[in-house]
Amino acid sequence: MSPTLGKYLILIGALVILAGLVVYFLGDKLHWLGRLPGDIRVEKENFRFYFPLTTMLLLSLLLNLLIVLIRKFFG
Description:
This protein has helices at about 5-25, 55-75; strands at about 40-45, 50.
């Protein structure tokens, strides 16, 4: 295996740990995440459907920005 793969795995692990720390310490302050305007929620008597469209778009935008910054500064 190449050393580059090892660097990427370490970076991914650090990001997962960072995300875990954010959820652990700020979980009660992130209650709005998943309840943004544009998230689709349908609730009926025996049926529940939830599709967090806006939340997924926001997270995708943030992850893409993070990847671009990492490539620019470390690539």
